Amino acid sequence: MKDQDNEHLQDYEARANEFVALTINVCEQKLAEPKTPTPLHGEALTSAALCLSNSVKTFLAVSQISSKKE
User: Fold this and answer.
1) Which of 18, 27, 32, 66 is 20 to 30 A away from residue 39, measured at CA?
2) How far are the Cα atoms of 1, 8, 48, 61, 62 from residue 26, in angstroms, in the given order?
3) Range with the poorest average pLDDT among 5-9, 43-47, 63-67
4) Is this prediction's pTM over 0.70?
């Protein structure tokens, strides 16, 4: 059962990494649009991408801790 849980966690981690990469790409595209983003707009998109990345990493770390306890 733990092998199956580990496979599910690895699959989820791969999908989460893909989601983070796509989100960062969207933020970069928004910043590269012809209209000039304000510095605040740029900071907000950068912060949002980093926040999302850190949130997913934290979730995955906590998930691994809880699966090791079982």
Assistant:
1) 18
2) 37, 27, 11, 25, 27
3) 63-67
4) no
What is the token pair recorded at 35?
């209209």
Tell whether the model's pLDDT for residue 13 goes beyond 80: yes
The per-residue pLDDT for range 30-60, each reduced to its tens digit, is 777 777 667 887 788 888 888 888 888 888 8
Would you call 33 helix, strand, or coil by DSSP? coil
Two structure tokens written together for 1 = 């059962």
- Rounded (10°) angle between helices 39-69 and 2-32: 180
User: How many angstroms from the chain centroid is the CA of residue 50?
Assistant: 8
How far is residue 7 CA from its own chain's centroid?
19
Place of tokens 């990494």: 17
Is 37 strand, coil or helix?
A: coil
